[in-house]
Design goal:
By secondary structure, the protein is α+β, with helices and mostly antiparallel strands. Helix content is about 45%, strand content about 15%. α8 runs antiparallel to α10.
Length: about 425
């Protein structure tokens, strides 16, 4: 049967060879795994393998970035809402946020830097402060792979160099030791100047998840089993194949028989084809893939419930969204907002604040429902004053609201009995 297969493929083996195949003669190559994120930390590799090639990593990063970009917030200058100010400084900041530059709006700006952050560990923001009186004209982000850092002898940053091929900018410290570039980075125990990439840290589960999915697809395409093992009988009617011939035969089988799992093994010893089957336990890829996916979610602070990786109910989903915003989205957004606010405050000589209007976030509604209920109960019991209660339900203070109100109908029980 095997000889007939060889003839149909147009292949006739040569005479006996001294070649004995090793593990590298099979189609599956273990080097494909070790060339992943775990062993390559270049930004191109991080972006390709940690964002483009892996669905779970992509979803965690992109959903988080979109959530950050959609957060409602207000700008306060010296404690006053910039929307209520006629000051030119306030107006210039609001104009900068409304129209960062000609290439993208604020939402696209936040999505970009919030995506670069977990991939590279670094975010670079460049506010354009060339307006009248040193006020901001716009703001832009730099791709991390286009920024190089020159360190001083004490391992501090001496200068940043941005270069995109057509434009080059050098940022040096001013007289006060600051840069006209905002560098937001993750903590990195092995570097004083560069942040630690979340994608690199999650390299092992990302690589494992990607390769497992690829192999799982190939197995399914081949009838949920590897192809088998082909060996050549050592008799007068058959010869053996050398390594190039084995490779050529593998390619022919792939092309004509649509075998694409890379699981055909060749042995120059016996003349038969033995199919190889997996047991149900060995075929349990789903649990392994799921475990890697959950590991990826954990590194990005993205609840696995939101990807359907764990058993979900309506309450679980609501709790997961609440946790997602309070433990991931809002802290990450505040990290960016505070860095920009510090820069603007230093440059403009005023106190700039970004305040997220959390009560407008739908996913936080369960939290504020509980807070509002507690505030009303405490006020009704005379434990808080009116302004404290108003603050608890999201309203501003009112004049004369600092007094404790007591229900005059309430009185001790013994007085009611005596009366």
């Amino acid at each position: 049967m095997f000889k007939t297969l060889l003839k149909k493929l147009g292949y006739v083996p040569e005479t006996k060879s001294a070649y004995y195949p090793d593990a590298s003669s099979t189609i599956t190559n273990i080097d494909q795994f070790t060339s992943g994120l775990l062993h390559n930390s270049s930004y191109h590799s991080l972006a390709r393998k940690g964002y483009i090639d892996n669905y779970v990593s992509n979803v965690c990063i992109s959903r988080t970035a979109k959530a950050i970009a959609s957060l409602p917030f207000e700008i306060f200058i010296n404690g006053k809402n910039a929307e209520d100010s006629n000051d030119q400084t306030a107006k210039s900041i609001l104009d900068m946020l409304a129209n960062p530059n000609v290439d993208y709006d604020w939402e696209e700006f936040m999505i970009a830097i919030s995506s670069h952050g977990p991939l590279s560990g670094d975010m670079y923001v460049h506010p354009d402060m060339d307006g009248v009186g040193g006020r901001p004209l716009g703001i832009e982000y730099f791709r991390p792979d286009r920024v190089s850092i020159l360190n001083s002898t004490d391992n501090r940053v001496a200068q940043y160099q941005y270069n995109n091929g057509a434009r080059s900018i050098t940022f040096k410290r001013d007289d006060d030791g600051y840069f006209d570039l905002i560098h937001i980075k993750n903590f990195n125990p092995l570097s004083d100047t560069n942040g630690l990439s979340d994608a690199a840290v999650a390299g092992l589960p990302i690589d494992s998840h990607t390769e497992a999915n690829k192999y799982n697809k190939q197995i399914v395409q081949n009838g949920a089993k590897p192809s088998g093992m082909i060996s050549l009988q050592d008799d007068e009617n058959s010869g053996t194949l050398d390594e190039p011939q084995i490779k050529d035969l593998q390619d022919r089988i792939k092309q004509k028989l649509n075998v694409d799992n890379g699981g055909i093994m060749f042995l120059n010893s016996s003349a038969k084809f033995d199919p190889i089957n997996f047991s149900n336990t060995e075929m349990d890829w789903l649990n392994g893939i799921k475990a890697n996916a959950i590991g990826i979610c954990n590194k990005y602070d993205f609840p696995a419930h939101l990807l359907g990786l764990e058993s979900t109910t309506f309450n679980n989903i609501a709790s997961a969204k609440l946790e997602f915003y309070t433990q991931s989205v809002i802290p990450k957004a505040n990290k960016v907002y505070k860095a920009i606010a510090r820069f603007l405050s230093r440059k403009l000589g005023v106190k700039v604040e970004f305040r997220i209007t959390t009560r407008e976030i739908l996913e936080l509604a369960p939290l504020f429902k509980d807070i509002s209920s507690e505030a009303r109960l405490n006020f009704a019991a005379g434990l808080t004053n009116q302004n404290e209660a108003r603050k608890g339900i999201g309203h501003e203070e009112t004049q004369g609201g600092d007094q404790i109100w007591v229900d005059q109908n309430n009185q001790p029980m013994n007085q009611m009995i005596e009366g």
